[in-house]
Amino acid sequence: MSSLANLSLPNRRFALGLGLAGEGLKYFRYWIAAAVVLAFLGPLALSLSTEIELSTWFYTANVGKWFTAFVAGGFLYALVPNMIAAGLTRRELSAAMGVFGLLWSIAIGVLVFAGLLVERVFYDAMGWTQGIQLNDTITTLGSWGETAAFAAVYPLMYLAYFAAGAAIGAAAYRWEGSGWLLLVPVLPVVFSLDNALYDTEPFGPGWMGFLGRFMDDWGRAAVLAAIVAVALVLAVAARRILIDIPLRSKKA
Prior knowledge:
The protein is mostly helical. It contains 8 helices and 2 strands.
């Protein structure tokens, strides 16, 4: 952290955000590598006893949403006292987390996008079907264009989950013992938009996506716009909570 002192005040928040993204990806690189390996080796093992009809990358990408929320909330909750003690202001930390979230979501989203396209080649070579489990049926991604269109929105979804995790993490630190309750209104909204975008049950408690039933007629463009709006609202909420956090020593 001493290197922050050598940066100008307007720039060090962005340098820190870049550093957090790099260190976060580095820290979890083995987890990410394991997920990639399992996504490709899993179908090979399953093909010995059953016909492959579902995309394993679809499930891997959904796990990535929860993982992203966990990274955002966990990093923020742990970083607040350490960063402030190192001389960083709460406003600088909020800006750094914004950069972190944007870069993390792009990086993981690009990985998922590439993974789904590579999986398409893999499945075609093996004669398997790259299907997606919808609410009641399995829908096949019939063309490269459909696969690319399906995968292209993952960076945005990861950004929404990152913003949700950051808001909950900041609230959990700000209001010890009760801040985590912010997940009660946040998760149904994020889950429902996820459900509406992909027309699938969200990866998690399915009942939390109940609002999705009211979004069936919105259309893809309207749902995407809503996801952008919710991500922005959650990011602003996380920032407002963070800059209002009182300085205090954490209990041992």
